[in-house]
Q: What sequence folds into this?
């Protein structure tokens, strides 16, 4: 049977580095406080107004195409995972397609937040396996910095997030020792308001008011303890489900590339699953939480650094807003 292979990866982050000490000048926090709670030392922000998620994705796509040995013109479908689209509509996939000169190529936006790359991977895998498309561009890209509350009240959320993009070029392969083995995803809306952005919202008339701005409904809100509890339960659960279904043990894994939400969460999950620390990729210290971009960004860097190589068996788990969660098992 035809399988779906990752032909090439690419990533891009803005040049503007924002350290914990930089944030400490804006509100009551410290480098020590942030590192102890999240593992983050710095993150990247867009350099100026007018740069959207699709602009970051454009750079990442060019790198991925080069690494895959694929011309941009060969891309016949785009899946764009983001919680921070350039505009409310149309989707960022359409903006990216235009910037790539891919007029007529279908573009699908995926709104599953931190699990968005995995949801997109499952879709791309199905498309390629059935022969619908041969070169799928799967993107995760975020511009968080323009929606954060830089005050004492918003610090718990603001210190976490950063901007960035990463992507994969996916295509068919007959190589039985390569490709996407399995992707499992879930959602439970009972936790939707534990990590969300309330406004603007089509559920309200008008969608945006001065009151919403004044009461800070326009900034992300998070119940940190609840999110931590769910993440440390669901990420091991879905990971073990994928491994067991495919007759794979933790010992068989070469690398684990988890969503980079909080280093403490990933360390807790790894310990719970008895995964050796040296097999787990962490880059949250450099970039913060880049949501849909975090897994492909970490994997792309691992490949670039030689830490991940062809033939490696890689597990990619995630948990995030929705609540949504999932895990993918891939042979590079």
A:
């Amino acid at each position: 049977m035809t399988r779906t292979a990752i032909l090439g990866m690419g990533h891009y982050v803005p040049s503007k580095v924002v350290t914990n000490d930089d944030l400490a000048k804006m509100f009551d926090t410290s480098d020590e406080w942030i590192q102890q709670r999240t593992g983050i030392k710095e993150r990247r922000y867009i350099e100026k107004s007018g740069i959207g998620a699709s602009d970051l994705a454009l750079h990442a796509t060019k790198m991925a195409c080069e690494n895959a040995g694929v011309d941009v013109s060969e891309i016949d479908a785009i899946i764009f995972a983001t919680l921070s689209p350039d505009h409310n509509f149309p989707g960022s996939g359409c903006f990216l397609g235009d910037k790539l000169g891919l007029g007529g190529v279908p573009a699908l936006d995926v709104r599953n937040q931190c699990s968005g790359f995995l949801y997109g991977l499952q879709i791309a895998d199905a498309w390629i396996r059935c022969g619908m498309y041969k070169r799928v561009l799967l993107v995760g890209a975020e511009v968080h910095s323009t929606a954060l509350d830089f005050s004492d009240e918003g610090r718990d959320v603001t210190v976490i997030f950063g901007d960035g993009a990463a992507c994969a070029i996916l295509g068919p392969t007959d190589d039985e020792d390569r490709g996407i083995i399995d992707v499992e995803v879930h959602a439970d809306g009972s936790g939707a308001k534990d990590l969300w952005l309330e406004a603007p919202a089509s559920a309200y008339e008008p969608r945006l008011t001065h009151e919403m701005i004044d009461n800070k409904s326009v900034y992300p809100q998070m119940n940190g303890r609840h999110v931590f509890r769910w993440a440390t339960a669901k990420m091991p659960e879905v990971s073990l489900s994928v491994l067991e279904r495919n007759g794979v043990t933790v010992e068989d894994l070469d690398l684990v590339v988890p969503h980079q939400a909080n280093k403490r969460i990933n360390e807790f999950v790894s310990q719970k699953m008895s995964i050796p620390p040296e097999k787990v990729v962490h880059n949250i210290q450099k970039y913060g939480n880049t949501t849909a971009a975090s897994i492909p960004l970490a994997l792309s860097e691992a490949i670039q650094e030689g830490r991940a190589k062809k033939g490696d068996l890689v597990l990619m788990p995630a948990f995030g807003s929705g609540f949504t969660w999932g895990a993918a098992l891939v042979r590079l």
Residues 3-173 form a domain with the Peroxisomal Thiolase; Chain A, domain 1 fold (CATH 3.40.47.10). Residues 4 and 172 are 5 Å apart (CA to CA). The first strand starts at residue 3 and ends at 12.
